[in-house]
Amino acid sequence: MKPLPKSFFDKPTVEVAKNLLGKVLFHRTAKGIIAGRIVETEAYLHMDEASHSFKGKTALNAMMFDSPGRAYIYFTYGMYHCFNIVTNKKDTGEAVLIRALEPILGIDLMKKNRKKENVKDLCSGPAKLFIALGMKKEQNGSSLISSKSELRLMQDDTLKRITIASAKRIGIKKAADKKLRFYIKGNEFVSRKYHDKKI
DNA sequence: AAACGGATGGGCT
DNA sequence: GCCCATCCGTTTG
């Protein structure tokens, strides 16, 4: 598997959100390597009311305005963190939220981290996968491109052809109609199997 | 299979 | 106060 180059991320965000499907996210932790295939993403765009970056740069969302290929991590609902990848040109404030992974490596570590046994429940949501991979909020802003990075993204050449589906983003009220959620059609590890029935 | 509410805390009006 | 890019256990159809 080859690492994704910086040019992969320095592209329009919707394109990156789709291209990330099927790629493998690696986390090198003290206890071992944990990895999963990205099966669901959401794009957050410039002038997008649902995006944290909509009202401009603040201390909290500053990483969204940094260079492509970095991690943007935010704290939410008083107890969870979610992991995004910064995309596009610097200062546009765009990013891709990673919403679900198919566990590949370090599944026992994931089970410990999540205190859950069902493999389908380990990474089927943005806060779940953050916990499963043993990520920390201090990794906000870290580069995913450097060979020294604990967090890395890889191309999987063995992956069969996939079909990409799009749908409305989850859990937002503003700009709720935009179909900026992307997932691998038919994949068992997406966060919601019956997603398109609901508003 | 869907709906609901509690947990939990930082930031903003 | 109220909102929030969530999760989970419980209750209801």
What this model shows, in words?
- The protein has helices at 6-9, 13-19, 107-114, 126-132; strands spanning 2-3, 24-29, 32-44, 71-76, 80-86, 95-105, 151-155, 164-167, 181-184.
- It is an alpha+beta fold.
- Strands 1, 2, 3, 4, 5, 6, 7, 8 and 9 form a nine-stranded antiparallel β-sheet that branches.
- The protein binds a DNA duplex (13 and 13 nucleotides) through strand 4, strand 5 and helix 4.
Strand content: 25-35%
The pLDDT mean sits at: 93
Helix-strand makeup class:
alpha+beta
- Helix share, percent: 10-25%
Give the helices and strands as they follow along the chain.
Answer: EHHEEEEEHHEEE
Question: In oligomeric terms, what are we looking at?
Answer: single chain
Tally the helices: 4
What is the terminal separation in angstroms?
A: 38 Å
General form: globular
Rg (CA only): 15 Å
What's the count of strands? Answer: 9
Contiguous runs where pLDDT drops below 50 for at least 5 residues: 195-199
Main sheet specs = 9 strands, antiparallel
Outline of the structure:
It is built from four helices and nine strands. The protein has 199 residues and is of the alpha+beta class. Strands 1, 2, 3, 4, 5, 6, 7, 8 and 9 form a nine-stranded antiparallel sheet that branches.
